[in-house]
Amino acid sequence: TNSNSVPAATWFLYEVLQDPQLQGRKEPNKTILTFDTPKLCSDPLLQSLYAETLRLRVAVLVVREPTRDNFSFRGWHIKKSEVLSISTRTEAMNQDIWNTGSDEDPHPLDTMWADRFIIDPQNPSSGPLRLPQDKKRNKSTIPAIQVNGHAEARKPYFSMDGLSASWIPYGGGTSLCPGRHFAKQEIITTAAILLTAYDFELIDVEGKDAPQVDMSCFGFGTMPPDRAIPLRIRRSQS
Question: In b/e form, how buried is each residue of 44-63, taking b as 16+ CB within 10 angstroms?
Fold first, then answer.
């Protein structure tokens, strides 16, 4: 719904605007207002930024009711017809599951990391999952791809492997949000259109008064910014 996709698109746009390096990696072509939505939504960096935005800004209370007695869930025994409530935020902030970077380049789970969902075949420590040392990817074990009959190393790619029970902003099971694919296109394309058609300038460039999530909306979907975000906006002059 718009109550979720609009604040998600706002966060997506804000993360691009407040990170000059991220802007440089995806500089829009402001001379042509045409968009290939499937291409945009298959771009590894844009997909990773989208997934990270929802991981960090969405909190849903998933409510379930066991249909059989003595249902066991992570050490808890739930009786039939009792209500079980699970917060997606708990899974999104689970230190045992998510990759938080390295000692030299840390990325705590309460901060935005646009590349969190990207696996770089040249970096065994990349990717969204925290892998045990003995299971880290080895460059020699990652198959090459064939291009014009020649083997080439794989480029960095977006991955959600192993996250079906941890990245759950759309819920799960039989009640998994049927509009999730449209929402993804809406969020990414909206940001692309705005960044192409307009020039934005954040007033608080140093992030001294950076917005946080509005916790009063916890449990109901995408948590919007807790304050107005001052910026200058004008139609692109390019």
Answer: bbbbbbbbbbbbbbbbbebe
Q: What is the dihedral of CA 220, 224, 225, 229, to 10 degrees?
A: -170
DSSP H or E stretch at residue 234: strand 231-235
Digit-coded pLDDT (tens) for 201-228: 999 877 788 999 999 999 999 999 999 9
C-alpha dihedral over 189, 16, 10, 156, to 10 degrees?
A: 50
pLDDT of 66: 85
Query: Which phi and psi angles does 9 have, rounded to 5°?
Result: -65, -35
Three-state secondary structure readout of 116-172: CCEECCCCCCCCCECCCHHHCCCHHHCCCEEECCEEECCCCEECCCCCCCCCCCCCC
Q: For 45-74, what is each residue's pLDDT tens digit?
A: 999 999 999 999 999 998 888 888 888 877
Q: Please determine, for residue 139, whether its predicted confidence score (pLDDT) is greater than 60.
A: no
Model confidence, pTM: 0.86
Distance (Å, rounded) from C-alpha 92 to C-alpha 130?
A: 13
- CA distance readout (Å), 179 to 57, 111, 173, 184: 18, 27, 14, 9
The structure tokens listed for 71 are 């249902």
